[in-house]
Description:
By secondary structure, this protein is mainly α. The chain has one domain: Growth Hormone, Chain: A, CATH 1.20.1250.20. Helix content is 69%, strand content 2%. It has helices spanning 17-20, 22-29, 44-65, 67-70, 72-79, 83-108, 113-131, 139-148, 150-157, 160-165, 170-202, 212-225, 240-243, 248-256, 259-292, 307-334, 341-362, 368-382, 386-396, 402-418, 421-432, 438-449, 451-466, 470-478; strands at 488-492, 495-499. It starts with 16 loop residues before the first helix and ends in a 7-residue tail after the last strand. The relative contact order is 0.15.
Amino acid sequence: MSLGEHTSDSAPxxxxxxxxxxxxxxxxxxxxxxxxxxxxxxxxxxxxxxxxILCYVNLLNYxxxxxxxxVLPDIEQYFGIDDGKSGLLQTVFICSYMFLAPFFGxxxxxxxxxxxxxxxxxxWSAVTLASSYTPKEHFWALLLTRGLVGVGEASYSTxxxxxxADLYVKGRRTAMLSIFYFAIPxxxxxxxxxxxxxxxxxxxxxxxxxxxxxxxxxxxxxxxxVVQEPKRGAIEAREERHLHRTSWFTDLKALSKNCSFVLSTxxxxxxAFVTGSLALWAPTFLFRAAVFAGxxxxxxxxxxxxxxxxxxxxxxxITGVLGVASGVLVSRQLRKKTPRADPLVCxxxxxxxxxxxxxxxxxxxxxxxxxYVFIFLGETFLSMNWAIVADILLYVVVPTRRSTAEAxxxxxxxxxxxxxxPYMIGVVSDxxxxxxxxxxxxxxxxxSLLLCSFVAVVGGGFFLATALFIEKDRHRAENYVPTxxxxxxxxxxGRSTRVPVSSVLI
Length: 506
């Protein structure tokens, strides 16, 4: 192979990226690099296809996550568990996902990303299929398998946005990220719809967990056969050989001093808390409200009515698309007037969602239609954050630290957000319940869910604080130059070695 010849994947899985790019550096210096080759090393058509595949996998991830929520009343009836144990199903998943995220973030900044994602998704699909065969005497086995599903989520969510960032810049990057994050609410909604309807058709909730594993196999094949690894930072004319890859502890230290990253992460934590609580409990809450009002019968023969999960799923899909699209459009227009547009839009989304979520919870027993209307408005405003928060992270963090930043944001937002919120809501509900009547099954869950509105207001405050630092941190990231005392990672005999910058500069 000639020195200027380009390989299909710039980073073999078991070797350092900078070594894989060495021959291309020589070819570029010799003037042998083709003029029409994009800086990222990926053609325009292939780049669009990669984004679409990543969107499909993202949709599948969230579809699997919320399939359990769509059949939660059936699971409670099948295992005979209370609200606290039901909340654990989401909590153990999020905890697994959260603690594994830094590990995959570390790998994602250093090795071939598509192979890491392929392994995670393949493992996740196998474990999800295994969870569908859990017998009723072993609820702990369902908890264990749901925890292991977090491997796939961690391997994917920390890495996929960084691939998009290496394919596009500025407005096109924001547009592609918005398409990518459309998959979160749409996939979540499909989880409720598919879970409830498959369970309804099969008269067995176990079948609801057997849909996504087959689709996961297709995702692995698409990743391996179609996705091509782009060069990190090259599309920004700042390839990683110019930026230098620093040690993991240096990355963490730099990120902890990045005010925009830290504050937006806390703001996103509030989003995770609210969405995590509503995602698991909203269909069950609506079902209990209907039973209390006499509109529906309680669970019969281990099978519960699924219309609430279906309707909530449709609402989640629609509000997700509207919320993400409106958030991006409003941010784009507001950027013409102020560079602080992104955090301001995120703050407005959270602050506007709070009163509508409060009204939805309060009106549940009086008017089903009013409840759905308020849920629609609240979720629309809440969804305005998804693509914008991701874009903020990508432009205030240098390319060689983005996977680590994604992982750190995942850990914090889930540790303080949706890792504990479903369980917390369930425990509070159990503690408030005075009797096991239909009234108190509904009322206790209603009172515990009111916490979501308060947390949304706190999150809006964090995004308002982010607006104070966003200009400075963005400028710093765009003009980043390694300092002499910053250790960098240099390949040595196939391994990574940390040395001072001064020892390698000429």
